[in-house]
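Hi there, hope your week has been kind to you so far. Would you mind checking whether the tokens look sensible for this chain? I owe you a coffee for this, so here goes:
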Amino acid sequence: MNALQQEWLALQSQHERYEALALAVKLAAFLATLLVLDSALALAVLALLWLQEAVLKTFQGRLGDRLLAIEPALKTGADAPAMQLHSDWLASRPRGAGLVAEYLKSALRPTVALPYPLLMLLVAFV
């Protein structure tokens, strides 16, 4: 097995791990809705969990970008440099407001946003 194949396997494993972590954050949001008695505190916890999931999904997206860069080289057998996840990301890393915008964009993706607004409405009106 060459270095590019090893990198793909490692990244794919971590990509799936981030998915499981994001689901755990959603579960924590449901539990917070049920267990936190103070509405203001529950809304704050839900907002923090929503942002935390957005950060996790942003990190997962970076792994996915690298996986998509590796796959064509694996398919064609091309000689491509392995182990370049951080170097490639650093070369295009957004700064300051751009980084915050990247996290907020992740937060607004339907697969991330669901169920946070609904839980927040539930907490606010029940």
About this structure: The mean pLDDT is 95.
